[in-house]
Amino acid sequence: MNLADGFRSREVTAPLVAEIARCLERPVRIMEVCGTHTMSIFRHGIRSLLPEGITLLSGPGCPVCVTPIRHIDAFLAAADLDRVTVATFGDLIRVPGSTRSLACARAQGAQVEIVYSPMDALALAQRQPERIVLFPAIGFETTAPTIAATILAAERLDIANFVVIEANKTMPAALDALMSDPQLKVDGLLCPGHVSAIIGSEAYRPLAERSRLACAVAGFEPADILAGLLSLVRQINEGEPGVENCYTRAVTAAGNGRALDLIDRVFEPADSEWRGLGTIAGSGLRLRERYRRFDGIARLGLDVQPAQEPKGCRCGEILKGRMLPPDCPLYGKACTPLRPVGPCMVSNEGTCAAYYRYIGVAQERV
């Protein structure tokens, strides 16, 4: 960003910051759900701009972070098999399983490839007909349509050596479960822009009404985030929490119908395990009967066992907004970006990674 851009940015954000300070009548606690919001808030120093009465908490919006260890172990078990190639997103490769990561497995000779989309994994399967290519299907509603489209393409092209491990998760059910936690005191949610572009802003209406919780959908530029925070402060002050879409250039009330149709065509709702949150009813996606032949766990005969969290790792508490990264006994000591113990220190959207990069090991004032 050049100097002129910096001045223009301040011209836009300064009035929003001043209005937030003017409207704030009492201390409020706001959770940003999306990992991209977390990184953007740190990158642009938004916490330092806000009045002291606003506390920002990070939620379970990092797909890599909420993927349980047993799924990581399943990816590793697949990588250990002969004639199997694991094609994965890059931010998953260093996430530790029970004993190692996919990066370690690759160093030990496993075929692990980094791809930028599930379609890249399908193209790899076309180029390697003698191998089974497995794609770890992680992510929220944002990635689910592309995975569904890839499975439909595999069916249309009759590509038999492409499989997935179903690890997709859906956001509303998880937020509902999280907000029912009596230990978590949150006044408002800054709702994720990417997910909302698929499911629509009205998807949060039942949660807002049931929990009397202010919700605002926001984009990722500083002005977008501040506009969302201002909306939440106003809703809280007025005592009329609802849902406001502050990202209308990308999000509609109903969402992306074609993307939702793709998800519904290939997947059906299922209970899903979230790291730190446990099993949440209806918060995952599994392949419909017609597409079960693409199920990697069944196809490869993988035995997925429950696994214990690393001793001392508090990623689960951080994902639930109960704890800040510097409060974890491993943060900045046994757990660093070079030697991560938990996924929150690995992913580009992880809260611990954001804290370490922009704050370091100092305790943030809350």
What is the name of the CATH superfamily of the largest domain?
Answer: HypD, alpha/beta domain 2
How much β-strand is present in the residues? 15-25%
Task: Classify the fold: give the CATH topology of the largest domain.
Answer: Rossmann fold
Number of helices: 16
Order of SSEs, N→C? HEHHEHHEHEHEHEHEHHEHEHEEHHH
Biggest β-sheet: strands ordered side by side in the sheet: 2-1-7-8-9
The structural domain count equals 3
In helices, the fraction of residues equals 40-55%
Could you give the count of β-strands?
A: 11
The second-level CATH architecture of the largest domain is 3-Layer(aba) Sandwich
The CATH first-level class of the largest domain comes to Alpha Beta
Provide the structure class: alpha/beta
Low-confidence runs: 1-8
Q: How does the overall form come out from the CA principal axes?
A: globular
Radius of gyration of CA atoms, rounded to a whole number: 21 Å
Q: Span between N and C termini?
A: 29 Å
Mean pLDDT: 92
Overview of the structural elements:
The chain has 366 residues and is of the alpha/beta class. The chain has three domains: 10-59 and 174-240, Rossmann fold; 64-170 and 255-300, HypD, alpha/beta domain 2 (Rossmann fold, 3-Layer(aba) Sandwich), CATH 3.40.50.11740; 315-358, no CATH class. Helix content is 40%, strand content 17%. It contains 16 helices and eleven strands. The protein has helices at residues 3-23, 35-43, 46-49, 63-66, 69-79, 102-107, 118-127, 144-157, 171-179, 193-199, 205-211, 222-238, 257-266, 296-300, 315-319, 351-358; strands spanning 28-32, 54-58, 84-88, 111-114, 132-139, 162-168, 188-191, 214-217, 243-245, 267-274, 278-287. The strands form three sheets. The chain has a five-stranded parallel β-sheet with strand order 2-1-7-8-9. Strands 4-3-5-6 form a four-stranded parallel β-sheet, sandwiched between helices. It has a two-stranded antiparallel ribbon with strand order 10-11. Strand 3, helix 6 (102-107) and strand 4 (111-114) form a beta-alpha-beta unit. Helix 2 (35-43) runs parallel beside helix 16 and helix 8 (144-157) crosses helix 13 (257-266). The longest helix has 21 residues, at 3-23. It is globular. The two termini are 29 Å apart. Mean pLDDT is 92; it is low at 1-8.
